[in-house]
Amino acid sequence: ARTSLVEEGQTKHIRMANLAIVGSHSTNGVAAIHSGLLRTTTVRDLAEAFPERFNNKTNGVTPRRWLRLANPALADTISTAIGDSWIADLSHLQKLRPLGDDAAFRADVQKAQRLAKARFADWVKRHTDIVVDPDTIFDCQIKRIHEYKRQLLNALRIVILYQRLRENPDLDIPRRTFFFAGKAAPAYYLAKVIIKFINNLGQTIDSDPAVRGRLKVVFLPEYNVTLAERCIPAADVSNQISTAGYEASGTSNMKFMMNGALTLGTRDGATIEMAEEAGEENFFLFGLTAAEVAESRPWYSPYWHYQNEQETRKALDLIFSDHFSRDEPGIFEPLRGALLTYGDQFMHLADLTSYMRADGELCELYRKPDEWTRKVILNIASSGKFSSDRTIHEYAKEIWRAEPCPVV
Ligand SMILES: *Cc1c(COP(=O)(O)O)cnc(C)c1O
Asked: Is any ligand 1 atom within 6 A of the Cβ of residue 305?
């Protein structure tokens, strides 16, 4: 019954995944953790029946679009230092590794990043009339809106930072601009509430003289590839914060890495392999692992965090007090449902304190520009694996058995 191609019941359904596996010679996940979960959990019985069919192909992105075209200043800086062979073989970025300790190269990278931020700030002004300051940390989360991707966790982080500044106006933290972009499926009600919440959070902060200028939240409309090409080169921080075990691979994580953003992230999807390539000491990882998420699911209670963690409780109470919805009382009640009443399926509250800890470490590093830029360079140098050239080569060799066709 478990491996049947037909789901029995009132109305029968074809199980498309089972049909695809039985009817093909190869089935792959798109990152190592995803391929492992397919074998052990998602389609375990079929993986035991056809073990030789199961394999991994970690995703990649094209460095021509996502580095050379999107970020000409950084691309030229790289080519000046190591030549331009990286464009056709991204593993050559490894040659940048020793340059993390080269003060002149660090200055060149800082200059390229500042230019990309100014360019993006101009583009944002032209397209939305919003003014952002390129001398603040650009902290980005751009991806489809979904509960598992946890834009809400990011928003809770900002509410806590906002609370800290209101309670302690002398608090010395770097100035930051938080960018969000992403579309919601038309009928995904809670995703639209999340978009509304992020917009209201931004408005409330803008109209609070105690916080204005120190934190800014921007929700960019109409997320698409063009916006991603503009935003990613300007990012200092990439948020990849899905509940561990839910993001098959992710690809924006890779785009950010090759453009020199540092990653604040969970151990999920290809982010795990990115941190392996760069060394975990050059990443800001936090939160439960996929195994811990599965193991704690039966007894997890978000109320424990609400009752025992002061900042968590204050943040939620502020939201539920209509502080961010003065003129629309009650509109954020669905967030109470998602985060407390209905059990917090995506375990936002379980990861919130460790997210704040990792965020604090990242802010401390930002005070030391040379150490920050050294990590930026080590990240770029370690991003070579995440070229789609490598991925496609693996598909051709190990699945399609296709030979290259030389183009003269
Ligand atoms: C890269 C990209 C994605 C995938 O982003 P994830 O954060 O990995 O989900 C989605 N939409 C656009 C427009 C992209 O450029």
From this structure: no
Please state whether the predicted TM-score (pTM) of the whole model is above 0.85: yes
Does ligand 1 come within 6 angstroms of the Cβ of 225?
yes
Q: How many domains does the chain have?
A: 2
CA of 143 to the centre of ligand 1 (A): 5
Question: Crossing angle for the helix pair 103-128 and 72-82, nearest 10 degrees?
Answer: 160
pLDDT in tens, 46-71: 999 999 999 999 999 999 999 999 99
In a domain, 399, yes or no: no
Domain annotation covers residue 402: no
pLDDT band per the 50, 70, 90 thresholds, residue 408 = confident
Which protein residue has the closest C-alpha to ligand 1 atom 8?
250
Q: Is 250 in the pocket of ligand 1 (CB under 6 A)?
A: yes
* Alpha carbon nearest to ligand 1 atom 15, residue: 225
Residue 32 and residue 130 in one domain: no
Q: Residue 227 sits in which domain range?
A: 63-390
Tens-place pLDDT, residues 361-398: 999 999 999 999 999 999 999 999 999 999 999 999 99
Closest ligand 1 atom to 250 CA: 8
Helices marked H in 23-150 — which ranges?
A: 32-37, 44-49, 63, 72-82, 103-128
Structure tokens at 347: 């375990």
Residue 151: both structure tokens together: 């834009």
